Amino acid sequence: MSENKKEETKSPEKEEIRIGVYVCHCGLNIAGSVDCEDVAKFASTLPHVVISNDNRYTCSDQGQDLIKKDIKKHKLNRVVVASCSPRLHEPTFRRACEEAGLNKYLFEMANIREHCSWVHLYEKEKATEKAKDLVRAAVAKVALLDPAVESEVPITRKALVIGGGVAGIQAALDLADTGYGVYLVEREPSIGGRMAQIDKTFPTMDCSICILAPKMSDVGRHPNIELLTNSEVQDVKGYIGNFKVKVLKKPRFVTKDCSACGDCVKVCPIIVPNEFDVGLATRHGIYTPFAQAVPSTYIVDQNLCLNKEGIIKCDKCIKACERKAINFDMKPEQLELEVGTIVVATGADVYDPTSLQNYGYRKFSNVITSLEFERLINAGGPSAGHLLRPSDMTIPESVAFIQCVGSRSDRGHLYCSNVCCMNTIKDALLIKEHWPETKIYVFYVDIRAFGKGFEDLYKRARKEGVIFIRGLPAEISEDRKAHNLWLMGENTLQKELYKVNVGIVILSVGIEPRRDSDIIQRLLVLSRTSDGFFMEAHPKLRPVDTPTGGVFLAGCAEAPKDIKDSVTQASAAAARAGILMAKGKVTVEAITPRALDEKCKACGLCTKVCPYNAIVLNKDLKRIEIIEAACAGCGTCGAECPFSALYMRHFTDDQIMAQVDALTEQNADKKIIAFCCNWCAYAGADFAGVSRMQYPTNVRIIRTMCSGRVAPKFVERAFARGAAAVLVAGCHIGDCHYINANVQTQKRVERLWKKMEKLGLNKERLQLLWASAAEGERVASKVKEMQATVNSVTREEIEKSKKMAEKA
Amino acid sequence: MSEKNRALSGKHFYSGDLACAEGALAAGCRFFAGYPITPATEIAERMARRLPQIGATYIQMEDEIASIAAVIGASYAGLKAMTATSGPGFSLMQENIGLAVMTETPCVIVDVMRGGPSTGQPTMAGQQDVMQAKWGSHGDYEIIALAPSSVQEAFDLTVEAFNYAETYRVPVMVMMDAIVGHMWEKVLIPPLEQINIKNRKKPTVPPSEYMPFKPDKDLVPPMAVFGEGYRFHATGLTHEEDGRPRTESIKVQQKLVQRLCDKIRKNSDKIVKVKPIMMEDAEVAVIAYGIESRAALSAVRKARNAGIKAGLLKLVTLWPFSEKQVAEIAKEVKAIIVPEMNYGQLVREVERAAKATPVTFLPKLGEEPHRPEEIFEAIKGGI
Amino acid sequence: MVVETTHPLDVYLRETGMHHIWCTGCGNGILLNSFVTALKELEINLDKIVVVSGIGCIGRIAGYINTDSFHTTHGRPIPFAVGVKLANPELKVVVISGDGDLFAIGGNHFIHAARRNMDIQVICVNNFNYGMTGGQQGPTTPLNISTTTTPYGNIEHPFNLVHLAAGSGAVYVARWTTLHVRRLTESIKKALQKEGFSFIEVISQCPEIYGKSTKMGLPVDFMNWFKRASEIQHFSDPAKAEITSDRIPLGEFVDIEKPTYETLLRERIIQVQNKMQGGA
Amino acid sequence: MKTVTETKKLWRKPLDADKIKQPQAEIYIITDRCKGCGYCIAYCPKEVLEESEEINARGAHPPKVKDINKCAICGYCTAICPDLAIFVKEKTNEQKEAEKNERKE
Q1: pLDDT digits (tens, 9 = 90+) for A512-566
Q2: CATH of region D21-98
Q3: Which chain C residue shows the shortest CA-CA distance from B79?
Q4: Residue A368 and residue A502 in one domain
Q5: Which residues span the domain enclosing B300?
Q6: Chain D: residue nearest A368 by CA?
Q7: N or C, where is chain A less crowded by C-beta within 10 Å?
Q8: What's the rounded Cα separation, in Å, for the pair B275 and A730?
């Protein structure tokens, strides 16, 4: 860090500021609705700009080379690129600058694609105006930027894998085989996940547990893997490379001495449906979830066992256990793990079709789900592999599969669950294999056989006489006597109605996000897409990374996928985590604050708002000290400080004020100044761009790392400069990427509203918005909604609000 | 070999304490629990050395209460058991001596008497505990007490004490004054087979019919031992013959307490031992026990030389008291002289038995027993 | 439901034991039940076990159990047991008595038997007061409790029995409440199978008498207290195991191996005898 | 563990539900030994027992069976009873037979 100080002290105030501006066409992505040439021309008129030009792809090698050359040729000491979102290409251009010997912190981007061209496709003129504003702001900011050296933080060479399904297993094994220590945390008594429940896998038709079990036992005995089953992640602190994870290891009440002989089960008086068999078979209060469970140690179901609070009322199992392996004194353990990287492989839940009443699940006993089918068809399952109708335990002569149950429909989930088509085809073939005479119908919307070997399997099913009917049944009814089922609907290919009678109906249920995903989301400050699965850092370029450094995704936690994809993604996640740990260190962005001791009054306000307790008040020296390693750079301290005694590197007061001034230089009274946090609101706006949502052009977005950085004085400055309205936008409460910094945002905005009321200002003009990275729609509609206010503000009001700042 | 070792047959030069210990061993004592106290310590020391040699148990307990309790326990587990102490320790033992009486526990308690009351004169002799031996514990009861007057008797009477204890299921006290205890003399230990040894009666009925406190005609119940399968219960509470506590029954209390006393009283002829010396024609009788009986004997000889018809009745058993014998003598003699190393204890019993016959008491306090002259003077005064 | 007249455990009891004198809900009965259950489960030879008790309500227990048994004077069951054990080492000797008997009047015997590591099992039923004499303050009565002899509240610090036992050298020390009867039975079994001085404290209820001092009138009130306050932590520091109204530390505190007095005594005797043979 | 919530979700009658026979309990009460402490009633994990109206020789209300089918035969009532007045056993086949016959009549 000492180096940094040196670095900053020779910040180039004296030397003349020379800025280069590069306006990118991005093919037609930008040029299509923004006059880039004009923007570039405009840029050249701005202070300190010594060179400005436009080109087709600034991110291309030529584009980057040009910048590098110019830096040398024109002695540029600042660079601005007006193109896409900094969330996408800032790293690219920063690297370019560095390669040309320019400190990468002297670079700034203007987002004229996601925030401009894409959202104003049909208003070229206004879009161009907006682009100019954005460039002006960027130039204004870049001029005030300081060079900085990033400090390095060592990375703990251990990984945490959350979830012991096939994805978690693969990730754990890969990391462990690479030589890193791995903690694999699984909340169920055994690893194995959904794959362990499935009978056969598509398209190869091999036995699911047969191929999974070896991997499971590998995990069990791997010297580098510490397997923590029956355990849950309770708390995650720290940052990339240095996570401190609290895991609650719940007691099994059965020790390692257990030989899994099962004598205890025979005597246990508690009998309940077995989760693993989806309730089609029973288990006891002491049990092992399934034969191949890892660890094979049995477990006592705490909720059902008669022995509670250490009072042994029933000692049947204790007495039955020859090896004395049952111990009701086991206590929950709080483990403190230190890991450098985390792989989230928490998997998914299965859609519950009960709510789709027309299918009669739970009403008609012979309507079952595909997961129930997997257990029935499984030789080791409750019916020893016989597809028995629950109503009469007979093998049906005809079977109907119904696709997209809970998927691709507003009754359930809008997305495609990705695996159901192939799963059904596989199941159909399994039935054919055992009972070739069975008549099998598959009612579908589309058959999606996109994967390797999928189409062949589909063809085979057709060849073997499986009848595929396009068009889901509208209604299922049951004939009371035989408990057969009538399916009625329209065959949309033949354009004719059908009425089919079958012995059993299998609902091909979809995959949905874990109902308690929000817990992991909060602990690891992740984002989720609108369908509720965890969001990757970039849909294409960083598909297994998350916005939180050092945290990666694998398996159905990220999106519905089959076993192959889960395993692939798991290996990818392991590799990504491995890269970090191989490096052994990670650089912290130089966006952490510096205390200006001469201004600091040691009031301690900042220490109170810091979510990471990264600021300590030194009462003796009457000043604060910042623990850089703990600081995540949200900047809420800077926003809180009444004496501007915190220098928020790269997002300084001056820099942001400069942006506000730049954006309000022309007809401010028609503009909305929006402060958006990097992780949610700004990303949301990006998403709106990606999805080409159109909204009014008069909004000007300023990026801060966290909405908590938005100091009241910024807002006041915007009004003082005559802005019609101001929008402060951040992550939803609870989703803040800086734990809870956005709680301060809310307080501050509320304070401002009070103040505006006092001053007789229409507080509608200041809006607060919570929008996740996936909620581009919310951002767009908020901007639309605010037009009314913008149009209604009168001259007088504007003038009145200008005074606000003076009072401030 | 331990058996051979049990009795060191032959001539020895021992102190009374040593002889007492050897007597116990010869009698078959296999358990000693005690606590050091002058002047009885030598007995414990001897036992600590000798018992292991014969494969038996010596344990030094935390106090005399524990010692007597352990002795009772050992006896119930089938061993002949003994403890040895002196006045202060004897006082501590009284409650559990009561327990031994109530639970009819065969056991031997040696009291090497020193000067009291309280800590008194630890190293000096006395005969001040003889009444306590009989009356020390609460409630009505009878015990047996013996008083050796020589080192040989210390051996012989300790054997006898065990025989009484075993025969009558009662705690038996060896009341040995410190002079006898510390006095060294010649002892003859006969061959083991010539030593008369008695053992407790065993039950003859099967466990199902066994009643631990149901007496035979001699009023003494046969005694089963822990671990033999009789599974019986004993308690310090008033109890039925089957051992069941009965704390509210008058009948049971009367029956039990009477039997506990009667089994000694009604057998006293068999128990009481006295040695009449030159009593055939005696006109003056000296009645003495312990070391005093030896001073008395030489006084009597002196008298005879002086032509006075004096005789000595030496008491070997103190309890039960030799009432009949004393009464008979009283009829024959003009006067009775009782020298004791106390301020008047057993003399009361003598007076009670002597009726009209005048009894002169010669008290003695402090280390010294009476000198023969003092007794001789009394004899002369007796006529 | 069947109305019965005999209990499967009756064979372990004397007639008196089936209709014992103890009050409604008295913990002594649970200990009696637990103890004979332990005998049953261990299939112990009832001819080779001796139960010794002292004075107090629990003192009656020796008379109730169908083994050789002895009901001693107040405070003296331990030295009596020592005598029995040394006289016949093949007997299991168990002392069952109360907190007053074992730790007030008999305290000295307890610490010395523990110090010597006598191979006897001591079970103390701690009901925090002298029940049989009408509820007087005892060595385990908590501070400030008013009893008939501390009408203004107890000013004596109570014994922490497991600490005392551990400190005196017991090789096995455990504490359970009567509510934890099954664990109590297991501990009793363990103690009966272990060589050396073992001590089990049974936190017990005395609803009739101590209940008055503590406003716990109903037997179930005590059980609920045990349930609320119990904390099972095996092999925790006995010194920190004081009992308070809201914390009753339970579990096994000590379980160590140490040569018993009997073993050392036998060794000595053999040494002595060999020496003599050599000498002879 | 989330077993409980899971179990709620599981609604089907397990296929083997009929096959597994839970042992039936028989509870024996020695009415006149009972002193009415109520431990067996208060601490039965399955709430099988309740206090009866009956007053026994000791003037106590002995327990009576409320719902025998709930009984898990854990035997805690047997273990906790200070008066050895209650015990539970698995029903013998004879007893089951007898009951069947009763029902027939």
Answers
A1: 999 999 999 888 878 788 889 998 887 788 899 987 789 999 999 999 999 999 9
A2: 3.30.70.20
A3: C87
A4: yes
A5: 276-382
A6: D12
A7: N
A8: 119
